[in-house]
Write a structure and sequence with these properties.
Layout (H helix, E strand, L loop, with lengths): L8 H9 L4 E2 L13 E5 L5 E5 L19 H12 L9 H14 L6 H16 L6 E2 L16 H8 L4 E5 L8 H5 L4 E6 L18 H7 L2 H9 L2 E4 L7
Parallel strand pairs: 1-4, 5-6
Antiparallel strand pairs: 2-3, 6-7
Helix pairs in contact: 1-8, 2-3, 3-4
């Protein structure tokens, strides 16, 4: 999976359901995606974007080359977009700590990938989920660009000796099960039920950043929601 900025709950459910997590950072960077932004509750209604500005946001770079423009400014802005949760959400302080630690970890190289992986690691540690990522750009895997975007997953899975590849259900149209089968790999999709919770005094919005989920729910409640996800075969209908 691409390294997303504090992604939605299903992303962490997927981490919890696999043995090896590959940070896919070796292809062309795509601006204005989940890699440098996400959504949290708006203080009035609906959702609000939290964005990490880049110094080199361009399709001419690879994902692992993306650099955060100003970490201190981005941290202030991120916490500012979360400040309306203070004194309302029961787990505000814990989430604030996770965010601060992720940005601190990125000081080493100002890399967006470093920031995002640190965010994933911090959330997983808080939830008690094992997370030992394999960063694609830092490996010695001999990978040739496939003929289409969906070809990367079976190629990387095969190079790692995997017998099964699992993807979020929303991305099922990208893949051809027969391409995986030809390499001896089973293709499955993670079906994540919608997790609803009470964010009073706000109105619930689905599929927000994990930051919103963690603000209102204990780690055990989030773990229960993650455990409700199930891996289904490629030909099985899902709820997405």
């Amino acid at each position: 999976m691409q390294p997303y900025f504090f992604p939605y709950l299903g992303y962490f459910s997927l981490i919890d359901h696999v043995d090896t997590w590959v940070v896919f950072d070796i292809t062309q960077y795509t601006p204005k995606t989940w890699m440098n932004r996400n959504r949290v509750l708006h203080p009035t209604a609906g959702s609000n974007w939290v964005t990490v500005p880049l110094a080199n946001s361009s399709r001419s770079i690879l994902t692992h080359e993306a650099q955060v423009a100003d970490l201190s400014s981005a941290l202030r802005t991120t916490l500012g977009k979360l400040s309306h949760y203070r004194n309302r959400a029961p787990y505000w302080r814990q989430v604030e700590g996770i965010v601060g630690a992720a940005f601190a970890a990125a000081e080493v190289d100002h890399s967006l990938v470093t920031l995002n992986v640190a965010g994933l690691r911090g959330v997983c540690y808080y939830l008690g989920t094992a997370f030992e990522p394999l960063v694609c750009s830092a490996t010695s895997l001999d990978l040739s660009p496939p003929g289409h975007p969906g070809g990367w997953a079976p190629a990387i899975a095969s190079a790692l000796g995997a017998t099964e590849y699992i993807n979020p259900a929303g991305g099922r149209d990208l893949f051809d099960p027969s391409e995986f089968a030809a390499m001896g790999i089973t293709l499955g999709f993670l079906d994540q039920p919608v997790f609803t919770y009470d964010p009073t005094p706000y109105r619930f919005e689905p599929s927000l950043s994990i930051l919103d989920v963690l603000m209102w729910n204990s780690p055990s409640a989030v773990r229960t929601a993650m455990a409700a996800a199930r891996v289904v075969p490629a030909d099985t209908p899902v709820t997405v």
